[in-house]
Amino acid sequence: MSNLGTNLSPVSELAIDLDRNSEDALHRQIGASIRQRIRSGALPAGVALPPTRALAAELGVTRGVVVEAYGQLLAEGYLTSRSGGYTQVASAAAAAPPAAPPRPERPVPPRSACPVVDFGYGRSNLAAFPRAAWLRSVRHVLTEAAGERLGYLDGRGAVEIRSALAAYLNRVRGTNADPDRIVITNGYAQALSLLIGVLAARGARSVAVEDPSASDDARPIAQALGLNVVGVPVCGDGVRVDAVAELSADVLILTPSHQWPTGGVLSPQARVAVLAWAQRTGALVLEDDYDAEYRYDRAPIGAMQGLDPDRVAYAGTASKTLAPGIRLGWLILPPELVEPFAEAKLLADRGSPILDQLTFADFLSRGEFDRHLRRMRPIYRSRRDALLTALAQHLPGLEPTGIAAGLHLVAWLPQGLDEATVIAAAAREGVAVAGVSPYRLSPAPHGGLIFGYSNLNERAITDGITRLARAVSNLPERTTTGRRRTSGSPAPRAV
Q1: Rounded CA gap, 328 and 296, in Å?
Q2: How large is the average pLDDT for residues 254-277?
Q3: Are 185 and 194 in contact (CB under 8 A)?
Q4: Closest CA to 161 of 356, 1, 7
Q5: Separation CA 463–CA 474 (nearest Å)
Q6: Quick one: pLDDT band at residue 383, thresholds 50, 70, 90?
Q7: Which tens digits make up the pLDDT trace of 15-35?
Q8: Predicted TM-score (pTM) of this structure
């Protein structure tokens, strides 16, 4: 590997092999070898050659031989030198990089692929990442961490982050967490994958998910392991407990504090009923607490794990609160699953990056995480309010739900408006919005739109809803059954 700029090129990098039996003089052999490496690009412009004395000692020749070789290359323009400085490869002598193969022309994407307003969901406001506070924690860790902390870890993760998380989650989310029962993962996706694998190895045969839900996370993993995936219908308050009571499954994946995507909150009575089912059947409840820190119009709701830590595995991440690219997640596990899961984590990747773990632990312990959340809540609330105001003004026929918390809301479409048709019409107006249908396992009587608002300011939100309303108003008029309105038929409800 070459050293650029004024860095000194190691003697070994010149790779000069002298033939002392050759009729060619030694200084010519040295010059020819260096010249060839410059032409090939192995010695790029600006690289400083070794001092003549050092190279002579390495090659076992007198310094004068090297001086003569360098002098010839200087005369030819391959090298440059100045008084008191290093001898360097000249800019004009460096080999031109090989021409890159021509790239095929990329077609200009359609307008729908470059939205003016993107109501994307599932992410925090990345521009608001607390860089200065995070940097302070990084510096503290790099200064204070002992050298041995950079070695291999056990599968559970650094004790500092597990202790800081236990204190935080017990205080803020009402969990019953012990540091020894927490395992650090690379986000929720890895936690889910490893947990399903551990459960399958222990005899699990079926996984139940909410319907609708982010089943695209669990379904391919479970099916690859030969497990059956079943859906449990959701009502306005979350999963339907009557359906859970009749469920036959080894694990039930829930989002009880803010159902994804509808936003329902599982009531205390429903939580007790779900836990009674788990105790009766021996099933595990996996609680995905993905964005419960953001609440606006309701009191805090504790985690289910605190009610029954032996039947509930609690999953959390920094993806919605800080940034998904950090890839930090955690599981609080029942005692019998800690060691098998930690072993699976070690087998998967030998542990999550230690510096990231220690940085987040310091960030938590110093109270920076709490300060960041306090700063972001009013910002997100203001954006949510702007979205609700715009929907009420421009699209009163849509029915928002799940508005009390989180970073998104769902707006149900009235009968007569097809979800896919509305999404396509919105794209033509420069608005990207997703539908609820891809997250369903069973068909539904009507569709809905998912509006993420964390990355849009109030003006962009209003502009997006105005554009969406224009798109809907340009759709062909239909009756509530989806057919075109015929002459004399009553007009559908205004949207």
Answers
A1: 25
A2: 94
A3: yes
A4: 356
A5: 17
A6: very high
A7: 788 888 888 889 889 988 888
A8: 0.73
- The CATH architecture that domain 129-366 belongs to is 3-Layer(aba) Sandwich (3.40)
**Helix, strand, coil percentages, rounded to 5, for the chain:** 45, 15, 40
Q: Are 182 and 162 in contact (CB under 8 A)?
A: yes
Give me the DSSP letters along 47-63. PBPPPHHHHHHHHTS-H
Residue 84 structure tokens:
């008191």
d(CA 231, CA 222): 13
Q: Which amino acid is at 333?
A: L
Mention every residue, 6+ apart, whose C-beta is less than 8 A from residue 477. 484, 485, 491, 492
Helices (H), 350-492: 354-365, 368-394, 419-428, 458-473
Domain ranges of the chain: 11-93, 129-366, 371-473
User: Cβ atoms within 10 A of the Cβ of 66, count?
Assistant: 26
Q: Average pLDDT in the 99-110 region?
A: 44
In words, the CATH class of domain 371-473 is alpha beta
What average pLDDT does this structure show over 8-16?
Answer: 64
How far apart (Å, rounded) are the C-alpha atoms in residues 368 and 40?
Answer: 53
Domain 11-93 has CATH 1.10.10.60: no
Residue 69's region, left for phi above 0, alpha for psi from -120 to 50, else beta, is alpha
Residue 212's alpha-carbon distances to 101, 286, 431, in angstroms, are: 47, 16, 24
Burial status of residue 374 (CB atoms within 10 A of its CB: 0-12, 13-18, 19 or more) = exposed
